[in-house]
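Lab meeting prep.
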Amino acid sequence: MFAVRGAGAVTRLERDGVRWPLGARTYKSVLLVHIASAGAWLGIDIVMGVLVFTALLTPDDRIKALSFQALELFAPRTLFATGAVCLITGVVLGLGSRYGLVRYWWVAAKLALNVVLTALVPLALSPGVSEAAERARRFVTGAPATLAVGDLIFPPIVSPAALLVAMALAVFKPWGRIPWKRAQPPPTRRPQLDTEGA
């Protein structure tokens, strides 16, 4: 997976603090998977938005119930999978390039967005989608059930917006390096010369 690009390149990468430099072909392959997973993530968010806003705006309760059931069928698992792939490939790219994980502000911000969005899928989205789908199933069987969208309106707004911010960060690379203070070695004391006597 890791390769040496040449003596000059290794020297430059080592000087930049890259411990595991990726070969050119490996780097491009991981970058391709990273971009594809981010694109799939955004696409799933858009489909989720279509289903949520359909349930919000339609007057037909049967369509609302169907939208919630369709949402449960695909959204949580695929969103978590694409988020995890995007996160793993992003970490590999950071460790295998001069950008690092917390060396530049834009990389650290992208990493934080990815971790938060991926973690929110099992912690917040999945329970909300399951609860809405359960209400939809009760409605289909004729049991009393409310079909309000509730908090499900937020994920298809927040997630695509955050992904677009992350993509803009990757393109424009703002803010420069994080000014980490390197530990300075303690000053060495020079021996005192005895200038008196003798």
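Slide two material, second protein:
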Amino acid sequence: MNQHPRPDPSVEQLWAAPELSCLTILDAAIGASILALASVYPEMEEQDPADQTASLRAATVVIEDARILATALARYRLVLRRAADRAYDNMPF
């Protein structure tokens, strides 16, 4: 889960990449979903997968997939940031 909340995108960042507004909301929803599922199933970490109920197994899959999506979002933001840095470095003044 996202341990360090990212700052909201700046106006300049949103001009360059307006999709960041929706992705910021998605990132927050991912974090909230993981926390909610972990609070409903506190036994998740300690229980043998063979002994888990169907709902607990499904919640585990949702959390795993949410973490994968959060990583993909972070990767996307990094690519955008690097592209913006390269564009800034290439300015003639």
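Talking points for slide two:
The chain is about 70% helix and 0% strand.
The mean pLDDT is 85.
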